[in-house]
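Sorry to interrupt, but I need a hand with the structure work. Please put the record directly below this note.
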Amino acid sequence: MPSAIDGVDPFWQRPSASGKTPRGDNNDGRDGISDEGMTKSELIAELATANPHLTARDIETIVATVFNEITAALARGERVELRGFGAFSVKKRDARLGRNPRTGASVEVDEKAVPFFKAGKELRERVNRGKRRA
């Protein structure tokens, strides 16, 4: 499926200078998923390669701003939806009685909030298409 921007394949489908795609098409082929991950600095480098009109510093600022805004919204208990990608939300875990695995003793586990991500339909479809190619 083409990108929403000018029908051009998104940067994550283009090979990097090493010939590998960040999405992990160059793996052992067993499951269609790379054993390698992508770090924030690798994401910035890929974006810089795909957008030569922007400086690496500008891209770093953009990526940091996006991550910080998502984090701040989740800290406020808000939901963040990125159409075609997915939605971030916060789920509440009730207090419960747990067990210490070493001693078997009962331990009270406090109530807590945990971040949750639900992949969007387009992301799920693209990931599954990638698996079928392997």
About this structure: The CA atoms of residues 102 and 108 lie 15 Å apart. The longest helix spans residues 56-75. Confidence is low (pLDDT under 50) at residues 1-9, 21-32.
